[in-house]
Prior knowledge:
single chain; mainly alpha; two-stranded antiparallel ribbon; 52% helix; flat
Amino acid sequence: xxxxxxxxxxxxxxxxxxxxxxxxxxxxxxxxxxxxxxxxxxxxxxxxxxxxxxxxxxxxxxxxxxxxxxxxxxxxxxxxxxxxxxxxxxxxx
Length: 93
């Protein structure tokens, strides 16, 4: 039985590898850059040089995006514990 277990384990590993490996045909093409390029062209995730659009517009979009991320969500998360505590459908907010 040891041989069958080993064969089954190797088959499972092969299947996992087959479906999880990166496929070059499906990934988008991009230019690989080195660390110096990113250090010289980006600051805090913002492109530092002028692009085709206005620089102030891209910076204001980045700031508004950061502001949106920093806002706290006010929605109450409904979980199974809350549902099980209140089987009649009355939820605490």
